Amino acid sequence: MPIPPHLSPQTLADQVKTWGQALGFDAVGITDTDLSAHEAHLLNWLAQGRHGTMNYMERHGTLRARPPELVPGTLRIISVRMPYLPAGARDAWEVLEQSEAAFITRYALGRDYHKLMRRRLQSLATRMEEAIGPFGYRAFVDSAPVLEKALAEKAGLGWIGKHTNLLSREAGSWFFLGELYTDLPLPVDPPGAEHCGRCRACMDVCPTGAIVAPFELDARLCISYLTIEHPGPIPEPLRPLMGNRIYGCDDCQLVCPWNRRAALGAEPDFEARHGLDDVSLVELFAWDEATFLKRTEGSAIRRIGHERWLRNLAVALGNAGPSREVTAALEARAGHPSELVREHVRWALERLAK
């Protein structure tokens, strides 16, 4: 859609960024729809099978890299960033070093970010409509075939680092991304420039060696994939390497030098809930399904379901080291109705008995 003549494209773009920041986005950028370079990388990644059991990645194919095919008429993408690092959470390294404590990725300690950010993007679109009238748009927050990191890099919000997360010199990597696909011919921002240099801290720290080369991640080895996306048994050789990580893994972000500058999240909804930043594996393993559903209401954790939750906890308990409490907790689940859970409990008990 054309921009009204009383408002120049650059003025509207500047206003969009001001409105976005007022809504809690710490950075707003604008890019076009050309993702051809990233499409080649995506297709190569898929061809190598590095998406594992995430079959939807292959099913969507090139749609992810071609915004106008996903939303016809799209000319520009407004990319936004929102910091989430919870200020009051227990130090992540302390949790990782305590083998009987449960480590949960920092982004999942609070409320699910999807709805919050989508509402903010809708508010941004509404504010734009008030200024220029109706226009074509669609908001996305990790909810459709979108190459969000590639778009954010093109929009100048940062660069894709060696760990394949988006990085910013000013904000590190502790942030969520969202997009507003639009049919407005707005001016685009210069893309982000890479600043990883010779650093390979993320590659060296990865517990499973999932960062197989700079800027290349094999999801099949990634603990975040294994604990969240993967529905079946966790490969046995990888289980001892998972430590006490039961939902996601932040090691590559924790060691990144750029995260020394990262800002804490300002949204109260992202603060840790139900003490999940400082809780024992045994306590969480005792949750029945009703308790799991109640305690994870409004949380991203709920999406994995109780069965995978127990699977992940069984592995972590097997890595915790022998103790009466840990063994008793595992034995109490030895007859669980799910073979997936039973198999991981057996593995954990055998590991503790060695």
Automatic annotation (TrEMBL):
Active site: 142
Family the UniProt entry places it in: Belongs to the QueG family.
Subunit field text: Monomer.
Pathway: tRNA modification; tRNA-queuosine biosynthesis
Protein name: Epoxyqueuosine reductase
Organism this protein belongs to: Ectothiorhodospira marina
Binding site for cob(II)alamin: 64, 142, 166, 177, 224, 249-250
Domain 4Fe-4S ferredoxin-type: 184-216
GO molecular function, one term: epoxyqueuosine reductase activity
Gene that this sequence comes from: queG
